[in-house]
Amino acid sequence: MDDHALAAALAEQAGSLLLDIRGQGGAEGDRQSNELLLRLLAQARPDDAVLSEESADDPVRLTRGRVWIIDPLDGTREYGEPPRDDWAVHVALAVNGTPTAGAVGLPAAGLVLHTGEPPALAAPTSGPVRLAVSRTRPPACVDQLVARLDAALVPMGSAGAKAMAVVRGDVDVYAHSGGQYEWDSAAPVAVAHAAGLHTSRLDGGPLRYNEPNAYLPDLLICRPELADTVLRALHDA
């Protein structure tokens, strides 16, 4: 099984588990999904390192060229509010700092989007730019984009759900500022990039993974034809 297929299979298996135990709550979902993913990765790729939101950071990862970056349950709040489907499972492989394979499972929606079979880029739509935004904690960059692009806000839950909404054509832009970690974006970025979307930091710089500090505070995923417009809106005086 190649890395793309493995990422997809892991996201699907973790998602199935999470659906089965959803009534036990988010903390238990985090724990059991993490245990499953770590066990399966140890079996399938014993020489690779792992960086997980739910495990202590092992500095050995900094000596490895291949590091799996996982978020066993992205959107714990939404997971704990059945029947919401805007939560996700993230599984990505970073090779020398670049996410080369990845999968984002949306278990409650019955979907796994992955780099082995990248989704086709949806056709552009008319009307205002649609901006995915947190339903509880909108980041600071949102006000700037709304003011300069006259964007329409589309509230939803987890980072993975918002990123995949761009991939699926439900929104046009997902911009985040104010704090994330590598596991929040590695898999979504891998899938979005494979699907032909623009992926970068908010300043247009590259997203780098398996850094000594896993804090990666900002992110832009958007339709390619909007990238220059969005970056100007973020940075023009």
TrEMBL record:
A single GO molecular function term of this UniProt record: metal ion binding
Record has Repressor as a keyword: no
Sequence positions that bind Mg(2+): E53, D71, L73, D74, D184
InterPro entries in UniProt: CysQ/Inositol_MonoPase, Inositol_monophosphatase-like
Necessary cofactors: Mg(2+)
One of the Pfam families matching this protein, by short name: Inositol_P
Keyword entries, A-Z: Magnesium, Metal-binding
Organism of this sequence: Parafrankia soli
Protein name: 3'(2'),5'-bisphosphate nucleotidase CysQ
Recorded superkingdom: Bacteria
Gene Ontology biological process terms in this record: 3'-phosphoadenosine 5'-phosphosulfate metabolic process; sulfate assimilation
PANTHER family given in the database record: 3'(2'),5'-BISPHOSPHATE NUCLEOTIDASE 1 (PTHR43028:SF5)
